[in-house]
């Protein structure tokens, strides 16, 4: 599923799992909605029923990157995200709200968690969201760009300030991640399937033994 | 997702059902109920998902078994690499849980499965089904045909076993208990063995290695259940080959985690580290709310007590009081987690397997089970194996009862012995709308857990769980 599918020797198509992390209400879902559907809604309710969204970026004539973007489904709200959520991620966007000082601390905790538990080669981007608020009213800014940037540099993260509302730097954020991903090699979302990996949807040859037909 | 929404206010709106404990039974039901449009609040007092069936990091294992502040030594200290099951179980490839999973692509998106390499039985020095194999661990023939072809039994017995297994294969449970002159609802399994003149060691093999009974009480029960169990075993082996079992990469705890995500994606609310303080009841005795205590998501270190309104509660046994809502089954299970740096002797350097030490070999009433998994299942680093030994307690010295298992695993790098724990079952009275699940039992697979899921669904919803209709994409 996550292998790059080369349609010819010169074109590359790679698919990666991207997860979003950060405190509630920093605009994680809004960033995704802007990136995937180019929409923004101040009072948006959560998207019920969707496990993940996808969006494709053409990096150049020959390279296409497809993101499978997994949202927290609200499980971060009471600190109840399972490690499963970020375990096989190839990349992560850790979001904070530039108008809420504490949200950067939460973001830093997530970065630490990812570096401890996630895929060792994970590409992490730090996004300071709600740039529109600080642009409209500079006194609302609680976290200086230079401070966050210094932290990101030290921790080895990509960094951008974004606005899901105005779309500023949103496309740029995902493009920067795509450029850092190893599009020349497989971006296996879940690691290479083992020799005895099981395809749950394979039609059992002997379904009659189980008293039921194909369950696919 | 819920930007701007006050989390406390959201809780105050109340729920269709509050679920307590995130074991597999509870999480499957949460997932199903959320997909069906119920407003679900799911809480757990632990900081992790899975309850008693969780998979833990090595640092959590040290905390749990060696006391607060204990830390894994160098070599075992890379948490990223360890996912250790507290209760190891495998999935029958053709079983009901696998059937549920086949309907739920959103769960499959989060969990990958790997085959278990083999199924083994131990035999001591004297005779037995594997009379020609000598003392040690032996692979169970993986299909009925193989068993009948195998040179491990005499030619006469081979023919008898073959006719018995053919008769089992020809049985169709849906067509009623009358089968080839037998009434499987009435005839005991013992009488069926007698009818086919199977020898004692063959009965042992069929009952323990294929039907997976851990003791011999099934012999006196109607044969129907045993026929179905053998069919399940054979059908599961036929599905992917090698063994009837499959297992989730990164440990069994991935299953409850994946079902919580299914529920959350369909609107379920999740709260770990949350205590249940009290149940509130209406005048008619039915539950009307639960009082919970949790850390304010908007203020670190500040704890909130809140009564959440709900008309129904689903709880794992540790959230309810003995006497009113649950009773002991009378069985206790003792388990030990062993970390090895070598494959288990006699398993042909396998990366995994189930080893059964039949009660007849260990001079016991109950079999000893050993579940072996390794880095092939992403539960430990390369070069390590995890073997979990368990049995049903029969004596005052339960630790000693696992000895026959330990002997097969030596040398053992680390052993974590769990205190024997009671198995609970629900009392049938759920007139207060508080529904209680069963403990994960001593069996080596999860079929009894899905039985409990179906039972609970039926008493909660008043109808049978339609597994084939679970697929949310199809429902929309």
TL;DR?
The complex is a heterodimer of chains A (216) and B (476). Chain A is an alpha/beta fold and 216 residues long.
Sheet with most strands of chain B: 7 strands, mixed
Q: Strand-and-helix sequence of chain A, N→C?
A: EHEEHEHEHHEHE
The H-level CATH homologous superfamily of the largest domain in chain B, spelled out, is: FAD/NAD(P)-binding domain
Strand content of chain B: 15-25%
Organism (chain B): Arthrobotrys oligospora (strain ATCC 24927 / CBS 115.81 / DSM 1491) (Nematode-trapping fungus)
Protein name (chain B): Rab GDP dissociation inhibitor
GO biological process, one term (chain B): vesicle-mediated transport
GO molecular function, one term (chain B): Rab GDP-dissociation inhibitor activity
Give structural attributes:
A: 216 residues; Rossmann fold; 6 helices; globular; B: alpha+beta; FAD/NAD(P)-binding domain; Guanine Nucleotide Dissociation Inhibitor, domain 2; Guanine Nucleotide Dissociation Inhibitor, domain 1; 3 domains; 7-stranded mixed beta sheet; 5-stranded parallel beta sheet; 30% helix
Please provide a written account of the structure.
Chain A is an alpha/beta fold. Chain A has a single domain, classed as Rossmann fold. In chain A, 27% of the residues lie in helices and 22% in strands. Chain A is built from six helices and seven strands, in the order E-H-E-E-H-E-H-E-H-H-E-H-E. Chain A has helices spanning 28-37, 84-87, 101-117, 131-136, 145-155, 170-180, and strands spanning 12-21, 52-60, 63-70, 91-97, 123-129, 158-161, 197-198. In chain A, strands 2-3-1-4-5-6 form a six-stranded mixed beta sheet, sandwiched between helices. Chain A is globular, with a radius of gyration of 19 Å. Residues 187-193 and 205-216 of chain A have low confidence and may be disordered. Chain B is an alpha+beta fold and 476 residues long. Chain B folds into three domains: 7-53 and 254-326 and 424-475, FAD/NAD(P)-binding domain; 67-117 and 330-422, Guanine Nucleotide Dissociation Inhibitor, domain 2 (2-Layer Sandwich), CATH 3.30.519.10; 140-240, Guanine Nucleotide Dissociation Inhibitor, domain 1, CATH 1.10.405. Chain B contains 16 helices and 22 strands. In chain B, a hairpin with a 2-residue loop joins strand 9 and strand 10. In chain B, helix 2 (24-35) runs parallel beside helix 11 and helix 2 (24-35) packs across helix 15. Chain B is globular and about 75 Å long. At the A-B interface, helix 1, helix 2 and strand 7 of A face helix 4, strand 6, helix 10, helix 11 and strand 12 of B. Chain B: This is Rab GDP dissociation inhibitor. Chain B: InterPro entries: FAD/NAD-bd_sf, GDP_dissociation_inhibitor, RabGDI. Chain B: Pfam families: GDI (PF00996). Chain B: GO terms for molecular function: Rab GDP-dissociation inhibitor activity. Chain B: Belongs to the Rab GDI family. Chain A: Residues 202-216 have a biased composition (Polar residues).
